[in-house]
Amino acid sequence: MWRAYVDESESNQRVDPHTYLLAAALVHDEHAADVRAEVRGLLRPGQRKLHWRDESTESRARIIKTIAALPALHVVVVRTGRDGEPIERRRRKCFERLAYELAARDIDHIAAEARQSKNNLREMDHVKRLRAVGAVRAGMRLSHVPGPNEPLLWIADVVAGAMTAARTGTPDHLGQLAGLVDVVLLGTEP
């Protein structure tokens, strides 16, 4: 069974304002243990989790090379909102489209990096509403996992970081993932 591991990112607001991203790393259960071990191997001594923005240029090159070689696929939803639009609305709109994209790939299990409890609950309610109106299949499930506990979430962080870098002038990292990433661009709506 394929599962999605989801992380978020805001783009560089100075260069790419009002832009929000949700990235999903899609990993089959049969590969999950090996992929986790490979990604854990990217940690530096004392590091609790991999985080793209905290990595050096050299480290990013090594990380993206490793991610590109993993048996994983990726989906990134990018939404550019309006000035003053709340970040939670941007996330909700990205999540709606990501859920649709995952359902189209027969993926019903989503693990997202845990945030504040109230935000996690709001997102769980949102999934229930999407199921109720038939926007996603009845079997779609969402769980929230602390970032340091799940290395597969770190892959999504890396992919989101590579997408942000590409949108702000450094496309090399995303280019190394060519053929592995489906990108969905959303505009704003009333």
Total number of helical segments? 6
Q: Strand fraction band? A: 15-25%
Series of H and E elements = EEHHEHEHEHHE
Secondary-structure class: alpha/beta
Sum up the overall morphology in one term: globular
How large is the radius of gyration? 16 Å
Biggest beta-sheet profile? 6 strands, mixed
Helix content: 40-55%
Mean pLDDT: 94
Low-confidence stretches: none
Kindly report the spatial arrangement of strands forming the biggest sheet: 5-4-1-2-3-6
Number of strands: 6
End-to-end separation: 37 Å
Topology:
Layout: E1 2-10, E2 19-28, H1 29-40, H2 57-69, E3 72-80, H3 87-104, E4 109-113, H4 117-132, E5 141-145, H5 151-167, H6 172-175, E6 181-186
Parallel strand pairs: 1-4, 3-6, 4-5
Antiparallel strand pairs: 1-2, 2-3
Helix pairs in contact: 1-5
